Fold this sequence. Notes:
heterodimer; A: Heat Shock Protein 90; 3 helices; 25% strand; B: alpha/beta; Transcription Regulator spoIIAA; five-stranded mixed beta sheet; two-stranded parallel ribbon; 7 strands; 42% helix
Amino acid sequence: MSERHVTRDFTLPSDLSEVHRVQTEIEEALQSNRFGDSDVFAIKLAVEEALVNAIKHGNQMEPDKAVRVGYTVTDEQFSIRIEDEGLGFSPADVPDPTAEENIERPCGRGLLIIRNFMTSVDYVGRGNVVVMFKIRDPEPAE
Amino acid sequence: MSDTPRRQRITVEDIGDIAVVQFVDKKILDEQNIAMIGDDLFRLVDELGRRKLLLNFSNVEFMSSAALGKLIRLHQRMTQVGGKLVMCAIAKDIMTVFVLTKLDKMLKIVKDEQTGLNSF
């Protein structure tokens, strides 16, 4: 076990400005575990999209609702669990944003980005919890 | 109208009749920031009558899907008014997002500013 491994559990208010603070914290943990720039970019983007979804679509920005976040960074992988207090959703009901009829829609790309930038993504519970991880690229490109 | 000065989020350089836009922020993220950048870009089209926009992303290291939405709306607006929107100098990681979402097929994206200037 490396001494750099990080595990954190906390609760966020439904405030989008909190997202940046979490991203910065995670970025530092990833860098100290030798994640490459592309991995860091991918994880930050997926976390951004997932937290915005939880705050905006899950909790509907309601100030009395919170988002629970738990993540772990090791030198092998990053994993995170994000739970909102919303009604949940079924990912299968989200339209494909790359379909011709949807390509000009200005929203709906977050899930696609999360799925493609992480190694694994699962929605559990009633669809109000996302659990995802990414395995570190051991030989990141310069 | 508020008297509070707004922080500058874009810079605009006129090269001929082309408005070359640089982004001040390295990260284009939160909705308020994206909305203000969008307002500035739409003002170029709707109030200043610019019809050739070249967005230079060389300073941008990170952007979210919310920013993509704003670019799509700007593209739609430019099409409505018979203008042209071109984007250039997009970082490799950000470009993967455009490719993944297939927006690279809908939006005109070129390698660098000179190529962008030559594409109008």
